[in-house]
Amino acid sequence: MKKIINDAEQVVEEMLQGAVLAHPQYVKRVEGFNVLVRANSPVQGKVALVSGGGSGHEPSHAGYVGRGMLDGAVAGAVFTSPTPDQVYEAVKVVDGGKGVLLIIKNYTGDIMNFEMAAEMAEADGVAVAKVVVNDDVAVENSTWTTGRRGIAGTVFVHKIAGAKAETGADLAEVQRVAEKVIANVRSMGMALSPCIVPAAGKPSFTLADNEVEIGMGIHGEPGTHRESLRTADATAEHLVGKILDDLSVNAGEEVAVMINGLGGTPLMELYVVNRKVAALLAGKNINIAKTYIGNYMTSLEMAGFSVTVLKLDGELKELLLAPADTPALVQF
Amino acid sequence: MKKIINDAEQVVEEMLQGAVLAHPQYVKRVEGFNVLVRANSPVQGKVALVSGGGSGHEPSHAGYVGRGMLDGAVAGAVFTSPTPDQVYEAVKVVDGGKGVLLIIKNYTGDIMNFEMAAEMAEADGVAVAKVVVNDDVAVENSTWTTGRRGIAGTVFVHKIAGAKAETGADLAEVQRVAEKVIANVRSMGMALSPCIVPAAGKPSFTLADNEVEIGMGIHGEPGTHRESLRTADATAEHLVGKILDDLSVNAGEEVAVMINGLGGTPLMELYVVNRKVAALLAGKNINIAKTYIGNYMTSLEMAGFSVTVLKLDGELKELLLAPADTPALVQF
Amino acid sequence: MATAIAAIAALAEIIIANKEKLTELDAAIGDADHGLNMARGFEAVRGKLAGAQAEDAASVLKLTGMTLISTVGGAAGPLYGTAFLRAGAVLQGQAELDTDTAAAMLKAAIGGIKERGKAVRGEKTMLDALEPAYEAFTQAMNEGETLLQCLELATEAAANGVEYTKTIIATKGRASYLGERSLGHQDAGATSSYLMLKALTGFARQHSPGV
Amino acid sequence: MATAIAAIAALAEIIIANKEKLTELDAAIGDADHGLNMARGFEAVRGKLAGAQAEDAASVLKLTGMTLISTVGGAAGPLYGTAFLRAGAVLQGQAELDTDTAAAMLKAAIGGIKERGKAVRGEKTMLDALEPAYEAFTQAMNEGETLLQCLELATEAAANGVEYTKTIIATKGRASYLGERSLGHQDAGATSSYLMLKALTGFARQHSPGV
Ligand SMILES: Nc1ncnc2c1ncn2[C@@H]1O[C@H](COP(=O)(O)OP(=O)(O)O)[C@@H](O)[C@H]1O
Ligand SMILES: Nc1ncnc2c1ncn2[C@@H]1O[C@H](COP(=O)(O)OP(=O)(O)O)[C@@H](O)[C@H]1O
Ligand SMILES: [Mg+2]
Ligand SMILES: [Mg+2]
Ligand SMILES: [Mg+2]
Ligand SMILES: [Mg+2]
């Protein structure tokens, strides 16, 4: 394991310290907790947004703490949901009197830990609402299983619900918009290489020299299948095909696209992928309102990428294009 | 070689197409050339900035084309300086009547190709000035060799000279500010792993399981030495030490810091590095005005990072903090 | 209570000793952290209990549950944490641990897990070790066996439950994403449940008057 | 002119055949692209000359130089490009290629490289092959040797120059960043210069009346 770290056990703590030192204008640490909140938290009179999850997905989620997106982010151990006490603390610190929306990715652990925190905060009289993001079409959606995973599409929920909260909307309205994003966002990824959880010290899976994993999860969970590496175009076509099988977008409708690097992928390759994704959408007369390209929801040093498509209506588009000022996403 | 591409020979072309499709609000292609310029080029009445170099350093340089930074970026073959005709074309397209500043990284090839382009453009009557960035303290600076290489510090030149140009300053003034940045910026990097030029198909060097290269160049040029991987803190201390040996910064003075990922490094590790870099500077009573952390000047999928320190005065600080709106760097 | 602390210490020992094994099981069909999470949690429990000599058994279990909830994370943290809290609640005010009380504790723990995780037996989770264990325990109890014998039979049933998880498709937890491809793999959480029962049985054997 | 085109084709062939070797040499002390760059350039030259049958020799050299400048990039592109442009300028208006003209062309090419690259002999560059080659060429010429013999001796001197680059420290080009650690390594650009002279010699041998 070759990593630029000091101590596998301290990596989350040291990362959080480094993040606060890098972005003091945006975030501050909640002392004693693995929680970063806006430097000016709590923002009074605004619904607050809290997200979080295991570490190792940086810039998710602390990178999206700032005006127009999140109010707080909770960091678990690497690839492990944070614990309820941590989430509870975040909720208490960011609440500005209008309640708190928890943005949870659909993993059993995340849901249970965030739910326990919500119960604790509600007992304190804080209004809490929850949304669960489940954009990964690699996993079959069915009610008798745990359903689809939440991956890069979560960033669109942060962006759009965050913009809505900034308008002064109430908790139910912010939750409604978040649910609308979730209903309209789909993603799927592929990996060229595994990654190594620092505390584990070795990769959780291995791939042969020319083998790739299609549809893997952002914690190295196995995907739909393995295959020989194909061209960027063929791979993009497969992923976009799966996404559009699940999300009906008609000719003339508008979408936002995210080409997300998993941490070890050169931007050059993401652009090559985007060329094909854009062409595929253009071929169906689907308009792209905005493309995000880069590392938004990573898996440590994993090489690979995911494609996310978000179907827009007037409301979602306006909120997507609204300003944001956070460490990892700035737009104006 | 495991890469998400279609054809090693077409990778620059397809990347440029993908970039224009991703960022139509920022950039357009100069037809027939590997040149991206601002969507609204030429901007009349403003000095124009052109940079470029080999491809494989994305988001450098096309990612910095936009308001407050560059006007045009020229992409060479992977890791190979662009040719004079390409640079010449960029200069002609972006010139808004106030002249063009070429921002060149200090490599023999880049200098010769950009100089030839400048001669061609000057023959056409375009006012052209040049600056050469040489921030890499891993290489000894001496007048009888080619001197130090230009690496991540180049992004600070783009940012600050770009902000100056935006004020309506004339070519000599923009050049003066760029030279001031160059005089005050130093960088040094280290690599955990090599990268693979697509057309070559194999890494240009190899490292043993626990071995790292200190001071390597962004094209995989060998560095000062190899050593066993040390802690993030020890490595950061070595690099910052080399930088401050060369750049005298006194207690109470202010700097900007860039912790730059080389393409395959998780952001988590960059934050761990930043924790130490910030502590080292704080220990010397040096104030950090702003920290940039992420992938700014990469070497394809190389794992590793560089640290850049830019000493600020009032003028540089104001220009650094000025707004920018480009695909890879937005601030307001 | 010294015995309760020692019993929890035995659980901590077996979990920490099997950190890698549990992580590897989770790697195959999950996200390769179950052993890391559980070991982190039980290290913390060890630390907490080191400064808690005087507490009664119910408090020890409660402290264990709270500590697991606030240090394990993932799915296992809330599930095992809730289980220990519920088991501790049963013990509240009980002077001694007899077979009946042990059965009630196991039942309460399983109830907590089912409530929190909304899973049932047969979904390839820890329940596939714990529910058969509970059944074996109560059957032995009804046949008049000693606490140690009940535990031994419960552990055996849990071991069979772990084997059984290899033969079924996961429909809860991270392995459910794999659908049919989860077949043939052993569930990590069922394994940690079995290990804890095994450690408890070993502990009971050492402290049993008959030995 | 068909002969000029065929001569350039011979250069293209040897460079393209040595693409990997030149890249490997550049990998050791540079950035691993010299072969790729030169091969890309000469592929383009091949393409350009395929549609240029009727041109005179000076134009062929000019076209070669321009094409190298606009396709090779890096250090080698401007250097070799300038060299071919300058050599072509010497040939302008010349009916036949005699030994004197060849010497003047070589001299002009080297002059262009020195002007563009601001290097001198002994800095571990292509000049360490080309300048000894020029000296050997003119010495042979002064001794009355044929063009072919002059070329053969020049090529031999270039080969020695390539060997010599292993013994010196680079102070120009990318290898200069290595300082002393550039010792022992052979310069890629000197090697491509030697290869081109070798190809020219081979070409001259085939077309020489004496053979
Ligand atoms: N809903 C559930 N009910 C009961 N047990 C579950 C449930 N979901 C997961 N588990 C158990 O948790 C184990 C995984 O724990 P762990 O790896 O620590 O959490 P995570 O899946 O969040 O990484 C699984 O092997 C399974 O036994
Ligand atoms: N200033 C110079 N003068 C003459 N030759 C040079 C100079 N700089 C570099 N070279 C030659 O160019 C070769 C490298 O060419 P190439 O690899 O194509 O360019 P780059 O160094 O830009 O990657 C070196 O091996 C050396 O022979
Ligand atoms: Mg987990
Ligand atoms: Mg090069
Ligand atoms: Mg797990
Ligand atoms: Mg080279």
Description:
- The complex is a heterotetramer, with two copies of chain A (332 residues) and two copies of chain C (211 residues).
- Chain A is α/β, with parallel strands linked by helices and 332 residues long.
- Chain A has helices at residues 11-22, 84-94, 108-123, 154-166, 171-184, 232-246, 267-283, 314-321, and strands at 27-29, 35-38, 48-55, 72-78, 100-105, 128-133, 185-191, 211-214, 225-228, 254-261, 287-294, 304-312, 324-325, 330-331.
- In chain A, the strands form three sheets. In chain A, strands 1-2-4-3-5-6 form a six-stranded mixed β-sheet, with helices on both faces.
- In chain A, a hairpin with a 4-residue loop joins strand 13 (324-325) and strand 14.
- Chain C is mainly α and 211 residues long.
- In chain C, helix 1 (2-17) packs parallel to helix 4 (57-71) and helix 2 (19-29) runs antiparallel to helix 3 (34-50).
- The mean pLDDT of chain C is 93.
- The chains are: A alpha/beta (332), C mainly alpha (211).
- Chains in contact: A-B, A-C, B-D.
- Chains A and B meet through helix 1, helix 6, helix 7, strand 11 and strand 14 of A and helix 1, helix 6, helix 7, strand 11 and strand 14 of B.
- The complex binds adenosine-5'-diphosphate (ADP) (2 copies) and magnesium ion (4 copies).
Summarize, please.
The complex is a heterotetramer, with 2 copies of chain A (332 residues) and 2 copies of chain C (211 residues). Chain A is α/β, with parallel strands linked by helices and 332 residues long. Helix content of chain A is 32%, strand content 23%.
